[in-house]
Recover the amino acids of this structure.
């Protein structure tokens, strides 16, 4: 398989075939982001020959009689056919509809068991696609996009140079919904900066509550020296929230959300993993957050953050 640089995927895509169709990010400007700094380019689409040869390799892996026999001799379970493909890169959904349809066609040709195709997406990726194109993409299997919206706080979106506004989140997600494309949100706790965590969470809930994400997945801001945000802090133009403020912000977010969604703080940036359905598990989640806020110290949480070598 062709893989370039660090491959990032949501925890819930662990069973999906990771197919490299892009590497890097078309935007590459968010001040806090260091995710694709290991690449020598900003964004690249894979040659179709590489995509096709990876699909052939995946097909061989799951269907070749020799590898099936080997698996049996090793006493392992027979591998299940792939049900889902996750396209790698920060925003493969930016590719032209025609290209995405060609990729879906190739996936169907080599892996007919695949039922859906997911990927990370930016809010801006659907802007240049018509409503009809979005419907075509849904029909071709694109579903379950993971969008790192980070926040609905317009001040934070502008400062961090996310490249869209809260109104854009509403407009584009409603278009996805109209086409039947489901999506989940990654939220970035602390993106609003010191003193603004709880107001940022309230502004975000106001936006999220008008939409239907299948997931709200908070990550916690962890600032690395090779980020632009680190320089902003050194220059004194931005201040990070304290660790307990980050948990108070998360509490406000949970409290303010009134939609039906899955809330899951997963991944290394969260010292505590929290999961539950909203609204059913709201009280349970709030109690867990209250427990963290009252029983864990700022120093302990800070120690966790500063000892995270990477995300
Ligand atoms: S859009 Fe995502 S991957 Fe691209 S720079 Fe921003 S945070 Fe990083």
């Amino acid at each position: 398989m062709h893989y370039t640089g660090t491959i990032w995927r949501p925890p819930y895509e662990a069973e999906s075939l990771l197919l490299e169709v892009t590497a890097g990010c078309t935007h590459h400007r968010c001040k806090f982001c260091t995710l694709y700094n290991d690449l020598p380019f900003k964004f690249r689409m894979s040659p179709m020959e590489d995509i096709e040869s990876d699909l052939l390799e995946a097909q061989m892996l799951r269907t070749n009689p020799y590898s099936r026999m080997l698996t049996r001799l090793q006493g392992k379970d027979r591998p299940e056919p792939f049900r889902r493909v996750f396209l790698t890169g920060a925003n493969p959904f930016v590719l032209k509809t025609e290209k995405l349809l060609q990729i879906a066609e190739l996936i169907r040709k080599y892996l007919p068991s695949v039922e859906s195709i997911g990927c990370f997406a930016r809010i801006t990726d659907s802007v240049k696609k018509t409503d009809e194109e979005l419907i075509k993409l849904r029909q071709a299997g694109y579903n379950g996009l993971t969008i790192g919206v980070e926040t609905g706080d317009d001040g934070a979106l502008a400062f961090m140079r996310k490249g869209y506004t809260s109104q854009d989140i509403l407009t584009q997600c409603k278009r996805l919904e109209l086409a039947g494309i489901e999506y989940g949100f990654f939220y970035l706790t602390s993106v609003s900066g010191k003193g603004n965590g709880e107001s940022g969470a309230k502004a975000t809930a106001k936006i999220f509550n008008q939409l239907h994400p299948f997931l709200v997945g908070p990550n916690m801001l962890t600032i690395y020296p090779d980020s632009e945000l680190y320089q902003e802090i050194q220059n004194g133009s931005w201040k990070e929230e304290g660790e307990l403020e980050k948990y108070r912000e998360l509490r406000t977010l949970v409290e303010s959300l009134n939609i039906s969604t899955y809330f899951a703080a997963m991944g290394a940036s969260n010292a505590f993993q929290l999961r539950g359905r909203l609204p059913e598990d709201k009280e349970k989640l709030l109690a867990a957050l209250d427990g963290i806020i009252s029983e864990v110290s700022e120093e302990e949480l800070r120690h966790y953050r500063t000892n995270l070598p990477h995300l």
Notes: The beta strands are 17-20, 22-24, 43-45, 84-88, 116-121, 145-150, 183-189, 215-220, 261-265, 274-278. The pocket of iron/sulfur cluster is lined by residues 25, 27-30, 33, 35-36, 90, 122, 148 (CB under 6 Å).
